[in-house]
Amino acid sequence: MTNGLSRRVLVLLTRRRVGAVAWWSVVSRLPVYLMSLAMVLVVREQGGSYVQAGLASALYTAGMAAGGPLIARRLDRHGRRVVLAATGVLYPSALAVLVWATRPGGWGQPLAAVLAGVALPPANACMRSLWARLPLQAEERDTAYLWEALLTEVLVIGAPLMLAVLMLAGSAGLALTTVAAVGGAGALGLAFVRLPPGTEAVGAEAAGPRHLLGPLRDQAMLALTGVMATCAVPIGLMTLAIPAFVAAHGSPGNTGAVYACWGVGSALGALWLGSSQSRVPAHVRFPRLVLAYALGTGLASAATSEPVLGIALAVGGAPIALVSACEMTLVSAVADGGSLAEAFTWASLATVLGDAVGQQTGGLLMDLIGPRGVFAAAFATALAGAGLAFVCRGLLAQSSPAPAECPA
Description:
mainly alpha; Growth Hormone, Chain: A
């Protein structure tokens, strides 16, 4: 199965006019998964406190959350070139100002952090909406979204390692500036790469009148984002519980290795099980996958040592990328064709919000019930998400017309 899926991904990514856009999308997304960490390191390097570093990172995330749907809406209405070209220049410029022209304690650094968050190139939303429009067969589209889920796991693990390598050659500020410039160049490449005819955004006229909630007006889309937000809460809870468990049962220095088992299990699960997923309709397999994710989350509660926790995370994390890939398939099905980028942005923000709520809740619960209790809370919340997914299955079955498929 693994070899079959790998071959399908390779064939997809080497297709004419598909490989180039996929490559530029990877480059443009490099800053997404390390910028908050890099910003903390930069502020500390400049002599700022952890409070100031946390403020800069939080404001960057707030700007990203507030500006993301608005930027994605512009992407749907005006096409990728204008939006990606503008953000591809503004984003690295704002971060360069933050690093080289501001210092902790002044008003300029928080302002630059917010501006950088707002100006983050919408590469995730752009590429995922393009996968929905590219002339692909249904199985190829499922493969594309599985690739997107796998790429997320790779970047989550690999991007911080790339930052560490860059810091060996210079300062944190130089590393951040380099990554931002590379991401901006990737956004420009994604903006101007040639695409097959008919894959551009539909434009302002076809997109219809503006509405504050955009794609969230649709009940199926609202239900899907609710499920994803609920399912992200256990991720945040476990993000706090894992280091606490490791510190209580071994050395805190092993936290990274134990945590990495989670991502490795997710990637391996997608590679091993992904080949068989497209045989089942997305609205049917989604609640099943969420239930498998919930049961996998419960394995951490039985851990008695660091190695056992690592194994539990690897086994229990196997459905995570599959859930993410199925979610993307459903977004492309239930969202209106004129608001695909915004729909994908809302789906991503739902996950970010749920994760943040989980982390905050985990911090509040840790002293009261300990890491094992937080693991149990994560399990209970994941089961609630699975229940919600089954309840909403009928809504998710309602989909808009599928994009045109290419000849076999």
